[in-house]
Amino acid sequence: xxxxxxxxxxxxxxxxxxxxxxxxxxxxxxxxxxxxxxxxxxxxxxxxxxxxxxxxxxxxxxxxxxxxxxxxxxxxxxxxxxxxxxxxxxxxxxxxxxxxxxxxxxxxxxxxxxxxxxxxxxxxxxxxxxxxxxxxxxxxxxxxxxxxxxxxxxxxxxxxxxxxxxxxxxxxxxxxxxxxxxxxxxxxxxxxxxxxxxxxxxxxxxxxxxxxxxxxxxxxxxxxxxxxxxxxxxxxxxxxxxxxxxxxxxxxxxxxxxxxxxxxxxxxxxxxxxxxxxxxxxxxxxxxxxxxxxxxxxxxxxxxxxxxxxxxxxxxxxxxxxxxxxxxxxxxxxxxxxxxxxxxxxxxxxxxxxxxxxxxxxxxxxxxxxxxxxxxxxxxxxxxxxxxxxxxxxxxxxxxxxxxxxxxxxxxxxxxxxxxxxxxxxxxxxxxxxxxxxxxxxxxxxxxxxxxxxxxxxxxxxxxxxxxxxxxxxxxxxxxxxxxxxxxxxxxxxxxxxxxxxxx
Length: 504
Hints:
Elements lengths: L1 H15 L10 E8 L2 E5 L8 E5 L4 E7 L3 E6 L11 E8 L1 E4 L7 E2 L16 E4 L23 H6 L9 E4 L5 H11 L5 E8 L3 H13 L6 E6 L5 H20 L3 E7 L1 H14 L13 H9 L3 E2 L8 E9 L8 H9 L2 E5 L1 H5 L12 E2 L8 H7 L2 H15 L7 H17 L9 H12 L8 H18 L1 H10 L4 H17 L5
């Protein structure tokens, strides 16, 4: 009895003191559930983007704050949440696991493994919305090339480490193939790749994973998969999850290449969420903040200063157009956010030019700053020559007779396009690309038939790598071409021209 009295006295003392209770859960009640949206009454102190936990064990993310109620989007649409169910605040935002353990893994938006290789031993968890985005002072200029292995991009539309380069085009113009080749080309270059699949069929993602595994690229790649069967919330959040994983490596001083394939599907998922949340629709029924969801994602890419480790994150968002219309709402938004775009043309693709890059509509706002000296010297006048070629070709179609200079320019343009053609999974090192452009610039391709141009260039490059290895290695090490290198290259090209066997 005495023990009981002392217990009551201690409880009364605790109750009468002004000390707050140690663990006070703030709970609410689900008052309306439908279409993956739950309206909750009672969570007066909840904040935007907070994770809430339902009595059934499911989770949701708060995306609307009204006077009396908050609206949360349910993360797992397969679970049944009923009205009058208790909902508890977690005080946390949506987080994903990060660390080296994710390399070579396929994960969902929430970081759960999808590859049946067991649990992921994450080093830590990070919120998907960056608490601090590095400002201009914390960054350094983009001046180091990120080699893609595609001659047309590395020579004419160079991408630098820390740049944001948009890939835009119609369906089935080779956008995903191009980025897969980019990932494969990073092998041995100490670049971590992150591929975010948004709203694609599982079969397409499985085919991509097979290609990466077959070529040994999966070991330095993380795949974040939010396929077509996933909820709109997962498709909307997946790019931020991938970006957070990339940011972890960037802060560790590593170079990261992140690919968002594609942001059209993310925008559609966000439109769906916004309409279900009864937000006012704007142009094409997208909400007013559709620009902000992409800008706050892509602004996180960049190259950090040496004080912050010197890491970089290069973002390659992909956008799908309809009827080659790059003036539509979402494409124009992305074009204005990014540092340039690579436009893949349906007509070029159907004419057998792969990659089908429209050089006139493609641009890199970083430009030759993101090229090494060797590539800069070789590709300097190429874009101008190709622009003149396109103009002359328009005249030639009318059947008008051209003078010899114009005919020579047309012929040279044809050979340049042959050099820039590349098949799927055929990537070239920057030295090979420099040799191709050297052969074009030094008129070694002028007397060849068009179908002989590419085989000649490829075989000549292999010949120089084998018989003139010193000059090849010197260009690779110095990233420049000196006078002595030019002399050696001419000597090698002269030798190879004599022994080149024409294909049957």
